[in-house]
From TrEMBL:
Gene3D superfamilies given in the database record: P-loop containing nucleotide triphosphate hydrolases (3.40.50.300)
Record key words, sorted: ATP-binding, Nucleotide-binding, Transport
Coiled-coil segments: none
Highest taxon of the lineage: Bacteria
Pfam families: ABC_tran (PF00005)
A GO term for molecular function: ATP hydrolysis activity
Descriptive protein name: ABC transporter domain-containing protein
Family: Belongs to the ABC transporter superfamily.
Residue ranges of domain ABC transporter in the record: 2-233
Length: 243
């Protein structure tokens, strides 16, 4: 579960996110949408405890992020599309093991989880190769694996299919569906509206740091008498929408 209650984040007195409130329930997949600079990455970084809110409260898996940041980090998996966070001189296996250690896993659990994830993501053949020569898709598989090696209850994904080929992007989409079936809470940002429509139960749309929509896709389509998510999105951010 994720809860944001009147969250504001300012940088040098300029709000990046302002008065943001929404929830993501257990087993729910929610798409976080907005133009560049709308506050999506800032929001995800606050939820993950990388940033602290200037005002308001964030709760993850029943833990307040300001009071229990370390415990929150153990319960979440996070992947930023442009930042795989991998060490190029280490093998894929060593990268996953390193992050497993950071999450407090013992060696046996790390070995078991690594083998499970390697099979799941079809990466067994390059598991013991150094990451430095990997393609974008291979890197992303390793990055996802190290993000979920500790089997987190909450998964945060920021533009996770950015730069991926169609095969790797489809793998990610299947993974989101599998995570949901396992009861994980998933919040991900994307510019690909077809991806959001296919995977998400609800959408949260930001414009210039403020909430302009929070609800089911069906309610969004009904309100605009259209099923063209691209056109609806452009209309909302073009006019500023309504809370």
């Amino acid at each position: 579960m994720i809860l944001l209650d009147r969250v504001t984040k300012t940088f040098k007195n300029v709000p990046a996110v302002e008065g943001l409130s929404f929830e993501v329930g257990r087993g729910e997949v929610v798409g976080l949408l907005g133009e560049n600079g709308a506050g999506k990455t800032t929001t995800l970084r606050m939820i993950s405890t990388i940033l602290q809110p200037s005002e308001g409260r964030i709760v993850v898996d029943d833990l307040d992020t300001a009071q229990r940041a370390e415990d929150v980090r153990r319960r979440i998996g996070i992947l930023f599309g442009g930042e795989t966070g991998l060490y190029e001189k280490l093998t894929a296996r060593e990268n996953i093991a390193y992050f497993g250690k950071l999450y407090g896993l013992d060696d046996r659990t790390i070995r078991t989880r690594t083998e499970e994830l390697a099979k799941r993501f079809d990466m067994t053949e390059f598991l013991d190769r150094k990451v430095g020569g990997f393609s974008k898709g291979m890197r992303q598989k390793v990055a996802i694996a190290r993000s979920v090696v500790h089997d987190p209850a909450v998964v945060l994904l920021d533009e996770p299919t950015s730069g991926l080929d169609i095969t790797a992007a489809n793998m990610f989409r299947r993974l989101v569906q599998e995570f949901q079936a396992e009861g994980k809470t998933i919040l991900f940002s994307s510019h690909i509206m077809s991806e959001v429509e296919r995977l998400c139960d609800r959408a949260v749309i930001l414009h210039r740091g403020k909430l302009v929509f929070n609800g089911t896709l069906e309610s969004l389509f009904a309100a605009h008498d259209s099923r063209d998510l691209d056109a609806i999105f452009m209309n909302l951010i073009g006019t500023g929408g309504s809370r």
